[in-house]
Amino acid sequence: MIGAGIAALSLALAAAVAYAAHAAMERRRMRTLFRVSLRLNSTIKRKELLRIIMETAEKTLRAEGSSIILVDKERQELFFEVATGEKGDEVREIRLRMGEGIAGWVAQTGESVLIPNAAKDPRWSNRVSNRVGMPTRNMLCVPVVSNGETLGVLQVINKKRNGTFRRSDLRLLELVASPAAVALENMLLYEALVKSMETLRETTAAKERMESELKIAQDIQRSFLPGDAASIARVELAARLQPAREVGGDLYHFIELGEERLLLCLGDVSDKGMPAALFMSGLMIWIQAKAKSYDSPAAIVADINREVSDEDSTMFATMFLAVLDARTGRLRYCDAGHCTPYLLGEDGAATPLETSKHLPVGVFEDTEYEDREIALSPGQSLVLYTDGITEAESPAGEWFGTNGLLEALSRCGGLSPREAADALVASVQSFSQGLPPSDDIAVMAVKYGKN
């Protein structure tokens, strides 16, 4: 009996030790993936992002070399945009057919592989290793997939210190490939935007095609907006955007961050027309890319500012960016030189939100920003707008101004965000009496409900 009890106790202790070791390994893995996600969200510039992916994979898996092989959909080929390791530069011009070699097989099938002995694998192609004179002993290769589409292949070769890769290493590389796919998708989206806008800017030189091309630009620009309304937990939101021309520089964005938190942003680019539209669209991509990188709105604004600041550019943008907890009404916000927001009660009383004013984004790369914080009361609304509202002109040359804004808000106290946004825009249009707007108009109304 005693012997059986000791044996059972020993088994229980061994199981507890194994469980604790597994839990510790999972915690280390989660910390590693968190650091990986932060690095991958730090940029959407092609060369920099791809190199970060490679260096991260190589370091995480303790490999001698790594590469990301992208898919050329038009030519149905794979190409080495970036490769790390001593012979990385010699790899970049090589192209593989879909299905060729292990990487081509992974891209074609969408399956991950662990190759303990590359030379003995029937799928092995020695084109790359012969070109660079770097033998491949063992390797891991996983597909990089976003929204069901294979963007490329991520591989690491030769475990350091003559080691061998394990199944746990393959799983870890698959986990690294997941945030890498999101980062690559953002990069490709940004590049497609720049390419399409640049093409559009060149073609607008032909006067007879101006109208149709501007309509295309308007469609492209509006495609980056998240919609015009949202509802999450106790929060309802509505937004409106009216460019003074076919395209403009005002912007708004809202993004669900998880855990019933909502990122809110409204901004105004310093120019109008096509230059402002280009800058605005770039800001929308940066906001999307940086939204989940930090808990602090000021940190998000500062990071975007570093990305868009350019000594040769005269473009800048005012911006109000906030993170709202839709359950508690807690609002953290950062004001980059934007129009003062208002808090609107259900009785129509509007009070200015206290903010710390900072320089707009795109002025100086090293500008520092700070957060402020309040708690919205149940039934209270936050109203954001651009200066196209307050600087709207009547036929007599008068401005709508702050008084006009407060008077319009006084009639919006009991309205839904959608009704309030529409009413504010309608008040400006009535004041202008059909006069063409001189500036873009953007409005966002966010209401924290009572239940």
Automatic annotation (TrEMBL):
Key words, A-Z: Hydrolase, Signal
Pfam families per record: GAF_2 (PF13185), SpoIIE (PF07228)
SUPFAM superfamilies from the UniProt entry: GAF domain-like, PP2C-like
Gene Ontology molecular function: phosphatase activity
UniProt signal peptide: 1-23
Record-annotated PPM-type phosphatase domain positions: 231-448
Classification via SMART domains: GAF (SM00065), PP2C_SIG (SM00331)
Zinc is among the record's keywords: no
Taxonomy, superkingdom: Bacteria
Listed name of the protein: GAF domain-containing protein
